[in-house]
Amino acid sequence: MQAEQSLTLLVQDPEWTAPRLLQLPDNYNIIFQYYHRKTCSVCKRVPKDPALCLVCGAFVCLKGVCCKQQGICECVLHSQHCGAATGIFLLINASVIIIIRGHRFCLWGSVYLDAHGEEDRDLRRGKPLFLCEERYRVLEQQWVSHTFDHINKRWGPHYNGL
Question: What is the distance of C-alpha 108 from the center of its chain?
Fold first, then answer.
């Protein structure tokens, strides 16, 4: 009798939630100030090109030879372990999203825009940047629906160097 009740509880209306990317702060300066001088958990150094995995929140070295394992850089390795060869990273010093899919990568663009709705790639203009919820939803939807290959056309090989 008790086993039947337990089974009934398991079968009734399971609550499934769709996978989500990290919840990001509205102001890019919060991310930049926190991660700009943070040390990598693998090499214990401040990365020249820090990146944040938007799937799990891991902080990694982009293109860093310091964290290479068997000739593969840390971002590529992380994308293999975290996202089954799909990685979504926010490049801290550039405010740009990079997508890694297998042996390829592409620059997706930025989810942080200035007051005029423009990207500030590489943070050259120094204007305050704010999260564009619409762009972030589009990025998340492309990730959930596995449509990066169909939507993004500028893919290039990364040669395990990211």
Answer: 11
